[in-house]
Amino acid sequence: MWIASFYRINHSRMNTDQLRRIASQVRRDIIRQVHGVNSGHPGGSLGCTDFLVALYFSVMKHEPKQFSMDGAGEDLFFLSNGHISPLWYSVLARSGYFPLQELSTFRKIDSRLQGHPATHEGLPGVRMASGSLGQGMSVALGAALAKKLNKDNQLVYCLCGDGEMEEGQIWEAVMYAGAKKVDNIIATIDVNNQQIDGSIDQVLPYGPLRPKFEAFGWEVLEMNGNHMEDVVLTLQKARSLCGNKKPVVILMKTEMGMGVDFMMGTHKWHGVAPNAEQTATALAQLEETLGDY
Fold first, then answer.
1. List of residues 6+ apart from 257 with CB closer than 8 A
2. Using N-to-C axis directions, what is the helix angle for 168-179 and 136-149, rounded to 10°?
């Protein structure tokens, strides 16, 4: 059986098949966490799994066992759409930030694994409280500027949901980053066209994103967020584009509920937990590769 520490130490050797196997286990973790307390957000978590697995296990430069809030000399990641916390907690645990068994405390009283990530419990890997949508891009931008002031050459990553693009604060940050040529930030937008009350087009359509970011001076990439090879290659390309006086954004097409057939293609699993029968059906579709917690 593979163990997370092997991957953490040897991430540069990992191929996409290994990453896919980790992603399958992480998806199992998501289902089990949410079912365990009959609460949480499985849909977006499942959709973004391939991205976060590739980022933490293959692309991002980070030291799980030496976590510090300032992250000096490391790449930083900020989760703006904090409701997909079961995904992030699984990836953090399996990459070595805290014990894997702690996933069993998700959303329970006195747990460090709150429904939305928080900082006052001191959970390693978490540098901002998130869940109030629209704020993560601004925080990531501030961290990127701090790295420049400190002459720290590492990068800052941020993940936002496409529903967040309806928030005005996002566009203030986008405008500032482009105008000030903040070129050590890589933002990713989860473009699944779903939010809690329906599709983006039903709730508040905002038109094509690419020309908007380009108009504000960003370098724009697009990728299939549920195709591991594409995710890894696009993240590597994004890194190569940093330092060229333009911030970088990746428009990531995903399927909400990816990997579990009855959760895919609908907003209805944005924030609904599966019952026991649905959980068994979901887990039967997801290979156990690293061992359940």
1. 42, 43, 46, 47, 263, 264, 265, 266, 269
2. 20
Q: What angle do CA 110, 112, 113 make, to 5 degrees?
A: 110
Q: How far is CA 23 from CA 7, 95, 124, 233, in A?
A: 12, 12, 21, 17
pLDDT tens for 64-100 read: 999 999 999 999 999 999 999 999 999 999 999 999 9
Task: Please name the residues in contact with 64: beta carbons below 8 A apart, sequence gap of 6 or more.
Answer: 8, 92, 95, 96, 97, 124, 125
Distance CA(12)–CA(1), nearest Å, equals 20
220 contacts 236 by C-beta, under 8 angstroms: no
C-alpha closest to that of 225 among 255, 247, 203, 262 = 255
Amino acid at 43: G
pLDDT in tens, 161-170: 999 999 999 9
Tokens of 113: 């694994």
- pTM for the whole structure: 0.95
246 token code pair: 């333009």
Task: Specify the DSSP element, H or E, that contains 198.
Answer: strand 198-199
- Distance (Å, rounded) from C-alpha 108 to C-alpha 114? 7
